[in-house]
Specification:
The protein has 122 residues and is α/β, with parallel strands linked by helices. Helix content is 39%, strand content 20%.
């Protein structure tokens, strides 16, 4: 039986990297889509050869469509957060709108490809 193929958006983030490691332990084939704007590649140290890493932005439809191709499920953890980002985007309301857009965008792409979608946004 072939392993479950899973995409984790935001997989180099604090929570995303922990999920990636857990999925690997559970025997999944893991793909990560992250632009590392808020995450850190060092969080995936030691497992780089065990995952497929796609450097890209979830807001880029081509990157997102490429990342979701061939997976069984998506765990959507890509998000814009933190005080510096909030200042850059003009307040928490705008940051929240961006987060909701990213979740919607990931859901649409997942529905096109008929994969299971897990949105871990609080």
């Amino acid at each position: 039986m072939s392993p479950r193929r899973v995409l984790v958006t935001g997989g180099s983030g604090f929570i995303g990297s922990a999920l990636v490691k857990r999925l690997l332990r559970d025997g999944c084939a893991v793909r990560v889509l992250d632009d590392n704007s808020r995450g850190a590649p060092r969080r995936l140290a030691g497992i780089e050869k065990d995952i497929e890493f796609i450097a890209g932005d979830i807001r880029d439809p081509a990157a997102a469509a490429n990342a979701v191709r061939g997976v069984h499920e998506v765990h959507h953890l890509a998000y814009v957060n933190g005080p510096i980002v909030t200042e850059l985007y003009g307040g928490w309301q705008w940051t929240r709108r961006i987060g909701l857009f990213l979740a919607w965008h990931a859901f649409i792409i997942a529905s096109w490809t008929r994969v299971r979608m897990w949105n871990h946004e609080g």
